[in-house]
Amino acid sequence: MNLKRLTLEDYIINIATYVIYTFFAFVCVYPFYYIFINSFSANDLSERGKVLLYPIGFHLHNYAQVLKINGLLSAFKISILRTVIGTMLTVVVAAFLGYMFTRESLWKRKFWYRYAVATMYFNAGIIPWFITMKNLHLTNNFWGYIFPVAVQPFYIVLCKTFVESVPKELEEAAVIDGAGTLKIFFSIIVPVIKPIIATVAIFASVAQWNSFQDTLLLVTDPKLYTLQFTLYQYINQASSLKALVNNSTSAAAMAASLAHASTATSIRMTVSVIVVLPIICVYPFFQRYFTKGIMIGAVKG
Amino acid sequence: MKFLKTARQKNSLKDFLMVLPFLLLIAVFSYYPLYGWVYAFFDYKPPFPLSWDKFVGFKWFVSMVENPVKVKKLMQVLTNTFAMSGLSLLFSWFPMIFAVFLNEIHCVPFKKFVQTVTTLPNFISWVLVYSIAFSVFNSTGAVNSVLMNMGIIDEPIMFLQSSSHVWFKQWVWLTWKNAGWAAIMYIAAITGIDDSLMEAAMIDGASRMQRIWHITIPSILPTYFVLVMLSLANFLSNGMEQYFVFANSFNKAKIEVLDLYVYNLAMGSGGYSLSTAISILKTFVSIILLCVTNWVSKKIRGESLL
Question: Which residue of B has its CA nearest to A290?
């Protein structure tokens, strides 16, 4: 479309943007690449920071070793469970309330909507929250990960805004056909608002998978530790874990190769890769959904 | 007519009963904890239930301005909070400029690629950010390894275990994690700019920088304004996770923001009542900030933020 000859200014801007954005992309990609290649490179080399561009001395012992650490599998299970159950509940609640708050027939609709949205702007604080959770017996309880985040005003606002853009005629036709509230919601509204449901599902599942603070505050039972919390512990205790893992392997195997013996660095990087991999794998698929969500969110604050 | 009215009432009650369980969840998890604010007016020690002889009135609030040790500590914490939020505010134009010049790249695959990879860090947890930062920046990590190979330094630089430039480093982690994500909003706003404006400017012979300066940036300034207002309203709330995971004995004094201080007070040193008192003050200040920014927004833009 640009028929004009490029000026000097154009050249400078073109070159500068390519150089600068290549740098930004590198800064964002390389750290992931770095821990990834190190997780299956010779451990004596990665321990000294020698593996920089490509894997050296490829081996998979780190992954085998890390799985031997007590609690990692259980943490993985807890993280998956809370992500799946928590996301489903959050999404259904957000879509349902988002729809119900658009229904004129709901008793005191405006008041209840404000009552829900107001909770975005205050926070009782850590101690009152903790005591509430303790009174409800949600400390050291799996449901402590799920119930407190089930009703999220921000997601409700997203869904409500989207439902409002759906033509009212659709719903009215169903009412004339004699469909009840739930029937209208599941067979008319849900199919139409799928894009925003996808957006909310992404936000909610990433939040569940990444959640760290609730484990820190509520859970002391190692059976309920999540992957994020376990990773945090590994980072801080990697050196003692190293001893543990290496002791459990036979002395002969250890002597066989320094390159395969676990080090603090190898354990830390391998666990990090395990924690980040699920996000990187699903990321390309959900990327197209979040622009819409973030735009609606921006309008409604 | 009367029948219709009752039928409508019945419907409205049915609707209400369907949302009631969720309204109760909100009451339990968001409103009921407010009752816990009473702990700020007692000398609360956890195993014992509250009793009136432990009632201390405003003692904890007064101690924040009278007890010299607490005043000093609180001033340090507030300085940290203001420094971190202030740095973010000072560089809040960065995602906007990032989006503006990203839009100047005409090679679509490259543009998409940059957008994709710079958004990715937003989706990983602070624990992972810390783990990755530790891997890359520790004494044997990639950065020190490269710098030493090139002969720029002889001794590894302690990036994380250090008490210098703590605020700046925390700003760097925050920007690494959030800038690409924050830029999405501006990218969407730029896509909304009317093409005919650009074409008219080109016919008038405006150079590329002139088009950016006179068309693109003014078009997305309202978005920028809204986001700055919102970040002003959240000035005291930095969250604690980032600072919690990056904290160590070297940077302890400089990294403790208000949210982390409230946590440390409560979980570390058992200052339950003082911690609650600070939470209360923080909530009130945040609500006031929100009202003020909202009012300013109404005055200037004629539109409220909320």
Answer: B184
Percentages of chain B per state (helix, strand, coil), in multiples of 5: 75, 0, 25
Domain assignment of residue A113, given as a range: 72-222
Name the average pLDDT for chain A: 85
Contacts of A231 in chain B (CB under 8 A): 127-128, 131
Which chain B residues are Cβ-neighbours of A33 within 8 angstroms? Answer: none
Q: Which residue has the tokens 């690629």?
A: B113
- Contact at CB, A28 and B276, closer than 8 angstroms: no
Q: CB within 8 A of B209, min separation 6: which ones?
A: A9, A13
* Identity of the residue in B13, B37, B188 whose CB atom sits nearest the CB atom of A124: B37
- What CATH number corresponds to the domain at position B229? 1.10.3720.10
A209 and A267 in a common domain: no
Count of residues making up chain A: 301
Tokens of B298: 């109404």
Q: Write the pLDDT tens digit of every residue in B126-164.
A: 999 999 999 999 888 889 888 988 888 888 888 888 888
Does residue B138 lie in a domain region? no
Our count of domains for chain A comes to 2
- B302: buried, middle or exposed (CB in 10 Å: 19+, 13-18, 0-12)? exposed
For A134-160, how does the pLDDT look when each residue is reduced to its tens digit (9 = 90+)? 999 999 999 999 999 999 999 999 899
Count of domains observed in chain B: 1
Per the structure block, which two tokens stand in for B118? 């710079």
* Segment 111-140 of chain A within 8 Å of chain B by CB: 112, 115-116, 119, 121-132, 136
Percent of chain A predicted with pLDDT > 90: 40
Of A127, A65, A3, A99, give the one whose Cα is nearest residue A269.
Answer: A65
The verdict on a CB contact (< 8 Å) between B33 and A131 is yes
Interchain CB contact of A256 with B (< 8 Å): no
Last-in-domain residue among A222, A252, A268: A222
pLDDT at residue A33, as a whole number: 94
What is the C-alpha separation between B162 and B159, in angstroms, rounded?
6
Query: Is there a contact between B207 and A7 if contact means CB atoms under 8 Å apart?
Result: yes
Residue B258 resides in a domain: yes
The segments of chain A whose pLDDT lies below 50 read 1, 251-252, 255-256, 300-301
Q: Is A127 within 8 Å of B39 (Cβ atoms)?
A: yes
